[in-house]
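Thread title: Can someone regenerate the structure for this chain?

I was given the following input by a collaborator and told the matching structure tokens would be attached. They weren't. Posting the sequence so someone can regenerate them.
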Amino acid sequence: MSNIQDYAMTQEELQEALEIDPYNLRTDCAHQPALYAIASQMAADFRDFSKRQKLLLEKTMAELALAIRSDPKKYDVPKITDSSVSAAIACDLEVIKIKEELLRLEKGSEKASAIANAYEIRRSMLRAEVELFSSEMMSGDTASGQVNQTLKDAIIRKRQEKSKR
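Best answer:
Regenerated them for you:
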């Protein structure tokens, strides 16, 4: 991705999609790989953008330090010392702007990583839900035996319809 804003889903939408609907496991299972891929790619891109922003900050600070040392009066630095140059760099509006963007990207990176990890956990939870649903459906020992029998009958009918085709 060239830009964080290029994603089809936002972090908030990905976070909302984490919820598992026990009555819609097939759809949840079908969408899991794509959602995990989006979340993982977003986390990787945020890390990449953060690293690039750090490099930009270092470059900007180095260039500014050279400029201050070559023309201290232009930057209101009365005496060239390491601390006066550092102070002038810290007060520079461009440096401040880059640092603020870096903080925003690092926060986004942490959030995107947490969402990607949540999708890994969701995958395990979906697997467990499907196993639980399957075992309940095939056993007649549950409190919802009538519902299970209805589901079994529906599955048998569907299989018979498919085998006739």
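The two ends are 45 Å apart (CA to CA).
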